[in-house]
Design brief:
This protein is an alpha+beta fold and 182 residues long. The chain has a single domain (34-181), classed as Protein Transport Mog1p, Chain A. It has helices spanning 2-24, 26-32, 111-121, 170-178, and strands at 39-43, 50-54, 59-62, 72-81, 84-92, 98-104, 128-133, 136-141, 151-156, 162-167, 180-181. The strands form 2 sheets. A 7-stranded antiparallel β-sheet has the order 4-5-6-10-9-8-7, sandwiched between helices. β4 (72-81) and β5 (84-92) form a beta hairpin. The longest helix has 23 residues, at 2-24. The protein is elongated, with a radius of gyration of 20 Å.
Length: 182
């Protein structure tokens, strides 16, 4: 009799835990509806930690906790910007703060040369400044005047992929870079 009662209690706790998890994941299910297979938002079981996982382009990163989630997310698998082909993800929080991550693949030149060429292509002759974030060599556009208050950072993670981060907040870019796998 004790085993049956214990089994029923454990089964009830497991059911309640699943119900809690299911309700806690409603916002993530809604966000993931618009994303393709291989790109998703993941939310921790306990607490409100969010992460974007992109298996298509090979990266993942955490969302700043002060964002309290993601309001909107959009993924564009391939678009052309001038002569460049780029995959992009953009997301914003409830306060309309946003971050964009562009992925340029098969880049066969060094980061600084490539970043200067990209900026020249779009008529943005901003100054590039070198920075190191968590051991990663980064270039950032120093002169925000050209970009209307948007910060732009460049990261080359391996020999052929370059990530370009853009946001109105340097703090959010730093957070995403340091809490990501590139």
């Amino acid at each position: 009799m004790k085993k049956i009662i214990l089994f029923v209690v454990v089964l009830g706790l497991a059911g309640a835990g699943f119900f809690y998890w299911w309700n806690n994941q409603a916002d993530v299910r809604e966000l993931n509806k618009t994303l393709p297979e291989g790109v998703k938002v993941v939310k921790s079981l306990f607490g409100n930690e969010y992460k974007v996982v992109n298996k298509i382009d090979g990266y993942e990163f955490k969302i700043p906790s002060e964002w309290k989630g993601i309001k909107e997310i959009e993924y564009i698998p391939e678009r052309e910007a001038e002569e460049y082909k780029v995959a992009s993800i953009w997301f914003e929080n409830q306060d309309r703060k946003d971050v964009g991550v562009d992925v340029y693949k098969e880049v066969d030149t060094d980061l600084e040369t490539w970043a200067r060429e990209l900026l020249d292509t779009f008529g943005l002759n901003g100054l590039l400044e070198k920075e190191t974030i968590e051991g990663l060599n980064i270039l950032k556009v120093k002169d925000e005047e050209y970009l209307g208050g948007t910060y732009v950072y460049f990261l080359k993670s391996d020999s052929t992929i370059i990530y370009v981060f853009s946001s109105g907040s340097e703090e959010f870019i730093h957070y995403i870079i340091t809490n990501g796998k590139w």
